[in-house]
Amino acid sequence: MAVVDPHYLWAAGHVVMLTGSFYILLQSIFFRSAPKTYRASYTGALVSYCIVVFKSLGIPSLNRAWAQRAFADENVQYAVLALYWWISKPISITVIPFATFSLFHTLTFLRTNILPKLVPAAPPVQPGQPRPPPALYDRISRGTQLWVKTNYDHAMKFVAYAELAILARVVVGVFIFRSSLLAPLFLAHFIRLRYHASPFTRIAVADITGRIDSVLLPRGGAVENAWVTVKRVVSTWGGGHMLPGDQQPPAGAAAGAAAGGARAAPRR
């Protein structure tokens, strides 16, 4: 029996997530639900993340060292989040961050693994002969590589804002009885982990907090006190600090972290 290459299985999971997300979001425009597609999409995401986690961390071990490594690994965090959305009541917009990651991984996989097999390599240029114009494959490959490289940071910023929008959605959902109370608590803790690991999340949190400050603080009185209390509780929840001004990374740390994220992106 033929054995499936885990790399192809990883890519297939991303393709399922990407195509399923497109269908889910299209259905939501017409106020229709697609629960089967929703769970199939997250199944694809779980397959991809589990393969990456297994390759990076190895077989799970019941010891503190492995648990600490797993807890700090962003792929484990996203795998746990995908599992939570998989078992929860479907919320269409939750697929947006995962679909964004899957878009980049799918394009990279097509460029590096599929296109070279579909299009033969160009023959070598003999000395003294003029170099022919780039073949269609070369133009597509280079164009895809350039697009991925150019838009990576923009996509990560978009994901950071999307995760905050999803948090707002589940908080509102609690009050209108469309989300469980666990959903905002779970997602808030996830975003807290992302805040300490991702400069994109820190930028998004600072931006949104500043916008809310500009609206609520001038009102004074009970409104200002309530908002300040909410910020204090959120910033100190679970220990440490999460207010935008509490934790200033060293100069260049954000850029370094962003570059590290770009290098680590294929792992997801």
Automatic annotation (TrEMBL):
| A Pfam family per the record | TMEM33_Pom33
Record's bilayer topology term: Multi-pass membrane protein
Gene Ontology biological process terms in this record: endoplasmic reticulum tubular network organization; membrane organization
Q: Where in the cell is it found?
A: Membrane
Q: Which InterPro entries match?
A: PER33/POM33_regulator, TMEM33/Pom33
- Report the main location listed first in the record: membrane
Quick check: keyword Membrane in the entry?
yes
| Family, as annotated | Belongs to the PER33/POM33 family.
Record-given protein name: Endoplasmic reticulum protein
